[in-house]
Each structure stands twice: as C-alpha cells, then as structure tokens.
From TrEMBL:
Source organism superkingdom: Bacteria
Tagged with keyword Transmembrane: yes
Name recorded for this polypeptide: Sugar transferase
Location, primary (coarse class): membrane
GO cellular component term, pick one: membrane
Keywords: Membrane, Transferase, Transmembrane, Transmembrane helix
GO molecular function terms noted in the UniProt entry: phosphotransferase activity, for other substituted phosphate groups
Location relative to the cell: Membrane
C-alpha cells in the first residue's frame, strides 16, 4: 500500500527478499479488472478497511495470548493459587501468577503494536509481518528476563520458557490463517489499494501485468494515465481505458474510488509536476508510490538514501562469496549428511525395488552443467527403461503441449517404468542427488542443472544461472515444476541467482515439501 502522507514516496519493490522470493516472482493467475470494477464509485468501497483489518488482528492476537499464557499457567501450576516472590528489598513482595500472566499479556500486546505488526504496509504478503512479530516477542522475552534478574523475581523458569515460544508459534499460525483469508478477499478485489498508474504506455502496461500476476499483494489497478498516450483506448487486454489528462487526476480518483497513485516513469513528468501531484493528494487517505524501472530485485539489496531532497535508491550488486557462501556450504554438508543417514533404509529399499522391477542399473548417471559451466555427473534413481536415451530423438519430434521450447518434458512419457512413475510422482528419484550435494557439485537449493544440449539454446543472459551451484530443488520446482514455460523457468532461476539468501533457501525447502505432497507438475 502507499505511504501514509502524500509527499512520502517509497519503492514498490521494498519488501523483504525472503518475503518476495516466493510471492513476487512465482507465476500466479492474472486477475484483470472487469468493466464493472472500473466504474465503481467511492460509496461502494470501504475506505476504512485497513483500520478494520488491524482490529481483526488485534482481537485474535489477544485471544491467542490469553489462551497461550493462561493455558501454560494452568498446565504448569494447575488451578491452585500460586505466588511468586520479588526479593532484594526490606519488604518482600508476593504477587500471584495470574497477575503476572495479565501483565505479560498486556506487555505482549503493547509490543506487537509498538513494532507495527498490524500496519497495512506489512500485513498480507511477504515475510516482514512474521519477522516483526518475532522481533517483538523475542525483545519482550529479553526485557522480562532482565527485569527478573535485576529485581530478583523468583518465578518458575519453565512457565516463561514454554509460554513465549508457544505464543510465537500460535501467533504465527493465527497471522497465517488471516493471510489466507485476506488473499481470498483480494482475489475478489476487496481489501486492496485501488491504484491509478501514471507514466509511459510501456511502463504502465508492464506494471499492470506484474500487479495482476500477484493480486494477493493488494494493488488493484483501476485506471491509468498516460500523458502522451491515445485517449480512450484500452490498456493491453484489459477493460481499463487510458486517460491523458493529468490535471483531472483527482476527478479520476473520485470516480474510481482510487486511494493510491503509482508513478511508473517520470520521463513525461518534470520533477516540479510530480511534487504538485503529491501536494494534490489528501494526506492520510490518498497515497503516492514511486515505482522505479527495476524488476526482480529483492528487498535487502535495496537501500534508500535521501540526498538533497532526492530519494536515491541504491541497488547492491549480488555477490557470490564470503560468509553467505560459507554458510550455504556448511548447511548443505550438514543437512545432506543427516538426510542420507536418516533415509538410508529407505534409499536401500528403493534401490532394491528399482533393481528388481526392470532390467538395468539402479542409478542413472547423466552429465549436467554446473557452477561456472563445469560439467558433472548427476545421480538419480533410474525411472526409465535402460535404453531411454536412444529413444529420445523419436519422442522429441512429437508435440509438447507444455510449451517449453528448451527442456524436454512429456506428461505421459512411454519410457518411464511403473516404479519410476511412482518415484517421479513424489520426486523420490531425486534423492541420490544428496550425494552430489555432499560431494560439492550441487546444493540443496539452486537453479535446475541443465543438459549440455539445452545450454546450446540459451540466450546470453540465461548463462547467469551458472553463477551458483545447481540445486535439488529451487524456485521453479515450488512454482509449477514441469508445468512452467521456459520463460517462467528462466525468470525464476535468475531471480534466485540474483537474490539468494539462507532464509530464502529455508522457505524454498519448506515449500518443496508442500509441492511434492501436492504432486503438481511432476512427471
């Protein structure tokens, strides 16, 4: 959503990387604004939905904290009255744990409010909402521990050590459920900022498409203004008509019940004209957002620095060295070794099943291209007949409805064995790649390792995939897998290469488990 004051501007991409890592770049169904939506009046839109949603969150936060804190108190002490003692003074003071529970709940609610966990700029999408909830909880826990030490408060340690982690967990679950509800509302064009785009035709078209990809982000485009455009024509394949009169912007906002103006490019607008535009907006109700010509940039790489009244945006160049790389490799070694040990009985059973079901080797070794363009042998459980490679040329001539012009994917590939079909459905054929990870040729998370024949069809920019190690899983696997087009696959892989982080890797691993269980796009 926009800034709270009319002349405050922020970058549309300023969310947290680990938030946007999944949400922003993953392909989503495009939601276009119908003709009826573009003709709504202000009376049909609730201007106070942000405050009302914040009250929803406040109420459920209170219910969660009461349930957790008093639940832990009852589980730990029972229903008997129990006192704790504050010592270190001439007159020791004793208070009940019920009083302490009330104090903790009140302080926790204040901390959640002070940290802005219910602010409309952070709720509904991205990781920042969860991070703020965690920050408020952890800092409150630290303050209580410090106060208990300084004033020598003698209370049961287990009571506190259980209440705070459990409270944080249930708060996160509550926020997640509210987020699912809000996403449904936004898919139905409710509880969203109603946006007017201002800029060149190319820039407003691009941004409208990007916002339509992710309606859960809460930006619903209801009108566009292109100063040098063709008045009355439709924007792309939408029902949004193009306006060219910037002076009539306030009238347009009233007619469309819009509350946010996004300036997508300033080529046609002088700096003074943009300032006048910000002055014309109603403070607190109408918001101005500046969207620079940046796409697929993660939040931590963006830093805003005002210089002489200019909001300069610094974009860090991605680096593939140092502490982050060491942490990633350490995590790969530890996690792959543990998984191999835990899964070793299952790996042996699967190997026996593959060996006994059809003639051929247990493992399928295939040369793939890894980091810096170096080839390596990737391992998989064999899921096809032993002469699958010799049959490939005949299959490549068939029509591929998946629409991927580089990677060969076939939904009902006749080369796949019965046990191989089961392994592929749950991605179990990929498990031997844990040995690739342990050996250092792959990572748990990264771009898909391509075949050499595929690399020969790459455009120049696609070679940036080789700046990091290929992974067992990645953004494309959790965003549609084999159902994706080649363009979407490249876009997701390059986004990961440009913006990867350890927290982002953990999110992808979590979503991988859900994608495997859903079995969507696996063949």
């Amino acid at each position: 959503m926009g800034e709270q004051h009319g002349n405050h501007k922020h970058c549309l991409q300023s969310g947290h990387l680990n938030a946007r890592l999944i949400a922003r770049v993953a392909p989503a169904r495009v939601v276009r604004v119908p003709e009826s939506a573009t003709s709504w009046t202000s009376s049909s839109v609730d201007p106070n939905w942000r405050d009302r949603y914040a009250r929803y969150l406040m109420f459920t936060d209170l219910l969660v904290l009461v349930w957790v804190v008093f639940g832990v108190q009852i589980a730990w002490f029972g229903f008997a009255a129990t006192d704790l003692t504050i010592t270190g003074s001439l007159n020791d003071v004793a208070i009940s744990y019920t009083t302490l529970s009330v104090i903790i709940i009140a302080a926790w609610m204040l901390a959640l409010g002070a940290y802005g966990t219910r602010g409309y700029r952070v709720v509904g999408t991205g990781f920042q909402e969860y991070r703020l909830v965690a920050d408020a909880t952890i800092r409150l826990f630290g303050i209580i521990a410090l106060v208990a030490f300084l004033f020598k408060i003698d209370f049961a340690r287990g009571y506190i050590l259980i209440a705070f982690p459990l409270g944080l967990l249930v708060l996160g679950a509550s926020r997640w459920m509210w987020r699912q509800w809000l996403n449904v509302q936004r898919l139905n064009q409710r509880f969203s900022s109603r946006v007017i785009l201002v800029g060149s035709l190319d820039s407003v078209t691009h941004l409208e498409q990007e916002l339509a990809r992710q309606p859960e982000a809460g930006y619903l485009v209801v009108a566009v203004c292109v100063p040098n455009g063709k008045k009355g024509s439709l924007l792309n394949d939408t029902q949004i008509r193009i306006s060219v009169d910037l002076d009539a912007l306030q009238t347009e906002m009233q007619a469309k019940a819009a509350d946010t103006v996004i300036v997508t490019s300033s080529d046609e607008l002088a700096p003074q004209r943009i300032r006048e535009l910000s002055w014309s907006l109603e403070p607190g109700r109408q918001h101005l957002v500046m969207a620079p010509s940046l796409t697929d940039i993660g939040g931590p790489r963006i830093h805003t620095r005002p210089v002489s009244g200019l909001p300069l945006i610094h974009v860090e160049t991605p680096r593939y060295e140092g502490r982050k790389l060491f942490a990633k490799r350490s995590f790969d070694i530890t996690a792959s070794a543990l998984l191999i040990m835990v899964l070793s009985p299952f790996l042996l059973a699967t190997a026996a099943g593959v060996r006994l079901s059809t003639p051929g080797a247990v493992l399928f070794r295939q040369e793939r291209i890894g980091i810096n363009g170096k080839p390596f042998q990737m391992l998989k459980f064999r899921s096809m007949v032993s002469d699958a490679e010799s049959l490939l040329s005949g299959l490549q001539s068939t029509e591929r409805p998946e629409g991927n012009t580089v990677m060969f994917k076939m939904k009902n590939d006749p080369r796949v064995t019965p046990i191989g079909r089961f392994l592929r459905r749950y991605s179990l054929d990929e498990l031997p790649q844990l040995f690739n990870v342990l050996g250092g040729t792959m990572s748990l998370v990264g771009p898909r390792p391509p075949l050499e024949r595929e690399v020969g069809q790459y455009e120049t920019h696609v070679h940036r995939r080789f700046l990091v190690k290929p992974g067992i899983t990645g953004l494309w696997q959790v965003s549609g897998r084999s159902n994706l087009s080649w363009e979407d696959t490249v876009r997701l892989d390059l986004y990961y290469v440009e913006n990867w982080s350890m927290t982002g890797d953990l999110i992808i691993l979590w979503r991988t488990a859900k994608a495997v269980l859903a079995r969507e796009g696996a063949y």
